[in-house]
Amino acid sequence: MKKKNKPTYHPETQAIRIQSERTSHMEHSGPLYLTSSFCYEDAEAMRAAFADETDAYIYTRFSNPSVQEFIDRMCALEGAESGFATASGMSAVFGSFMAFLKTGDHLLSSASVFGSTHTVITKFLPKWGIEHTYFDLTKPESVEALIKPNTKMIFVETPSNPGLDLVDLEALVSIAKRHNVIINVDNCFATPVLQKPLSLGVDLVTHSATKWIDGQGRVLGGIVLGRKELVNEVYAFCRSTGPALSPFNAWVLSRALETLHVRMERHSGSALALATALEGNPHLEWVKYPFLPSHPQHAIAKKQMSGGGGIVCFELKGGLERGRRFLDKLELLSLTANLGDSRSIASHPASTTHAKLSEAERLNVGITPGLIRISVGLEHIGDILQDVQQALEASK
Ligand SMILES: *Cc1c(COP(=O)(O)O)cnc(C)c1O
Fold first, then answer.
1. pLDDT band at 172 (very low <50, low <70, confident <90, very high)
2. How many degrees, rounded to 5, is the angle at CA 267 between CA 266 and CA 272?
3. Contact present, 155 and 108 (Cβ < 8 Å)
4. Is the CB of residue 214 below 6 angstroms from any atom belonging to ligand 1?
5. Same domain, 172 and 316
6. Is the predicted pLDDT of residue 2 greater than 60, yes or no?
7. Given CA atoms 33, 38, 42, 47 in this order, what sign does their dihedral have?
8. Does ligand 1 lie within 6 Å of residue 89's CB atom?
9. 1 pLDDT above the threshold of 60
10. Is 186 in the pocket of ligand 1 (CB under 6 A)?
């Protein structure tokens, strides 16, 4: 961006125009700095860099211009002061836990969280003496009573994966503030295009950039964003433990951010059209989508999100076996573990990602036997709808 009289551009403009400084070649698109370390003119410049007296780059595990470009664009989109980018969404979530939690601390998390996040909280944090309590995302009024003197952090996903439950972030923030607890939101499903948790008073935002941010199912990545003093703690932990984002992946993700607003508008529009068309379908028990008036937390969705996102869920009549038959009959939609792709994807958690849980455990985290999650892609909505409808008919 030209420095002279720089106006404050809209976030979508900044996501396109923030760029690492032009080199002497005057390239138009941001270059890829695929290098693991950086050089110095002399011993004094090297000493000063290591003493943190200059902001010269040192080593890509700490920082890198291509990674910084992605961070700067994400900061503009989320309205964050600072950020640290990681190799995956899980290293962002894990780094945000390890930077602030220690032995004897307590984490309050919503029960419906991404599978690997659940594993980290339930299986690994206890190894370091960090305890947790899960709460029902749809009952934020229950949270205050669960806060203990050693509670350090509240962690939520909204909308949640795969159940699409929401929580009123402003209400949760006011509880967290009263008790001086850090509130950490996984904003993967909404993206900063549809929801900006930091503007509602949240302390930390984490992302899996692998999903909508990349948007084409190519690379893994993650990021933690928030106030500088908090992100510095995440940086200190990650710089020494090594979950750095590859500059190549950062470069791909920065280019992807240039189309994020356009893509999320299309994903959300098509998802709403699919959900609306499927509601009342005789093969389905129910359809769930945040911007459908029938969603139990529709009012919260309208209050804190500017669009419903690209995920639609429905419950098939006929349970687990019908779910498997439905997947078999799809012709266009992909059967794959990812979401947030230009290609539409169908998944059946009960027979795949959550198959190892008992039915009771599955119900506890909102996974019913016939639950299908559709990640609505960028194809023509008529083709997506036609494929889902023909697979419903054919899987009777
Ligand atoms: C996929 C996902 C993650 C983990 O991200 P990875 O990039 O796969 O490590 C975390 N949270 C949510 C909500 C996700 O969907």
1. very high
2. 100
3. yes
4. no
5. no
6. no
7. positive
8. yes
9. no
10. yes
Å from CA of 112 to ligand 1 middle: 13
Residue nearest to atom 8 of ligand 1 (CA): 89
User: Do 139 and 224 belong to one domain?
Assistant: yes
Look up residue 280 and give its DSSP letter.
T
Ligand 1 in reach of 370 Cβ (< 6 A): no
335 and 352 co-located in one domain: yes
- CATH code: domain of residue 77: 3.40.640.10
pLDDT tens for each residue of 243-280: 999 999 999 999 999 999 999 999 999 999 999 999 99
Quick check: is 6 in a domain?
no
Cα 205 to Cα 225: distance, rounded to the nearest angstrom: 5
* Model confidence pLDDT, tens digit, residues 3-28: 556 678 999 999 999 999 999 999 99
Same domain membership, residue 371 and residue 228: no
Q: Whose CA is nearest to atom 4 of ligand 1?
A: 89
pLDDT in tens, 291-330: 999 999 999 999 999 999 999 999 999 999 999 999 999 9
Give the count of domains, the chain. Answer: 2
Cα 88 to middle of ligand 1, angstroms: 8
Residue 112 lies in a domain: yes
Range of the domain at 277: 260-394
**C-alpha separations of 394 from 99, 345, 375 in Å:** 50, 18, 21
Q: What is the CATH classification number for the domain harbouring 351?
A: 3.90.1150.10
Tokens 């700490």 sit on residue: 62
| 35 shares its domain with 138 | yes
> From the CA of 90, how far away is ligand 1's center (Å)?
6
Choose one of 257, 286, 314: the last residue of a domain: 257
Is there a single domain that holds both residue 240 and residue 275?
Answer: no
- Whole-model pTM? 0.95
HSE-CB of 52 using CA atoms within 13 angstroms: 2
Is there a domain that residue 2 lies in? no
